[in-house]
Amino acid sequence: MRKAKRNIFLVLCVLLISLLLVISGSALQTDGAGNATGASKDELDIEGDYYYFLDSTEADEKIKGKIGGDILGLASNLEIEAEVGGSIRLASVLSLSIRNTSARNITVAAADLTIGENTTSKAVYAGAQIFRFDGTCDYLEVWAEEVYIYGTIKDSAKIHADNVYFADTCNVNNVKVDGMNKPKYFEKDNVQASKDYTENQDLKDKISYTQTLNQFQQYMSNLLYTLPAAILLTLILCFMLGKQLNEAGDMFKNVTGRHIGYGVLGAFLIPTAIFVLILFPYTSTAGLILGIGYLLLALVAKFFTAASLARIIMPSLNKYLSSLIGVTAVVLLSILGPLDTLFTLFSLIYIFGFVLIKPFFRPELPPLNNTIQM
Fold it and tell me: Of the candidates 300, 251, 294, which has an alpha carbon nearest to the alpha carbon of residue 272?
């Protein structure tokens, strides 16, 4: 689901920005208030909060022990087995597994996310591509592509996913499912033989299902606000950056290879530079500023590129009109996923190539007319 992916991205961004000023260290470090940062292979005994910020990408990296406050962090592959006095608020790029853990609340995001056996909390909020729940909580809310429920949900749950599976051994109450496909249930861990949840009388009484729009229906519905918003943004770009739209088009025509080359460097190496800058406390602010600038350019790149290229393709039309036609075509063609992805990548290359070359680019002047008129 696009909504699930968008939520995962937003959670990752919020957590990353909130942790930019955390000093990362290879060894565990504590402060005078009882908080700790860094990583340790030994069992932890921390009085306050524990900040874990990309200290390792090892598959077997684990947080274990006792933490009196919260766990906050950003990881790549991580396992947690701990007694947590506060809450767990963490995002993992690839996988996250929480087992044999107690916490007040759990707010997490990962591509592959498991809340395993003997894990208890008041509430769980999760975003993932694949989510498995085998713990115990009062309330659960999850956004994902696929959801597997094995555990106990005492009060209620909201599940936003296209594919939802309930084990016949789960214990749930008042579950609301939103998705494209009806929830399924399976027996004895044989998900291949899953059946419609309404065939299980116990689950039928405890689960309510609301079908969401399919991809095409969602796309048509989104056009009601995305197209007017795109047109408004295009008009703003034309009014404020009309000269730059023309210059980018001229640059692409005159120095195409250099434009693309610098664009590739800017689009894909600047994020690396941002990541390196935020790792060090003295440059983290510069990294944050550069990251915000990169994000702003990335947000308008698609519309900037479409508006600029349309002026090249349709030079005889009014510049505002040609830009509007170009952006409208791009928005309408966004239903073609692979094509939309390719144009998005190209637009990043286009706008960053323009930004990097512009200080050194001088458009060619037309030749002087030396003819002497009699």
Answer: 294
Residue-wise pLDDT for 252-268, tens only, equals 988 888 899 999 988 88
Nearest one of 38, 62, 41, 32 to 52, comparing CA atoms: 38
Cut 0.85: pTM above it = no
Q: DSSP of 221-241, one letter per residue?
A: HHHHHHHHHHHHHHHHHHHHH
Give the gyration radius of the chain's Cα atoms: 26
Cα(161)–Cα(163) distance, rounded to whole angstroms? 6
Domain definitions of the chain by residue range: 2-212, 216-359
Task: Give the span between the Cα atoms of 55 and 76, in whole angstroms.
Answer: 9
The residue assigned the tokens 């405890």 is 206
DSSP-derived pairing of the beta strands 50-53 and 71-84: parallel
Cα–Cα–Cα angle for 363, 365, 367, rounded to 5 degrees? 155
Question: Nearest to residue 269, comparing CAs of 356, 368, 329?
Answer: 356
DSSP 3-state of 324: helix
Q: What tokens appear for 70 in the block?
A: 């919260």
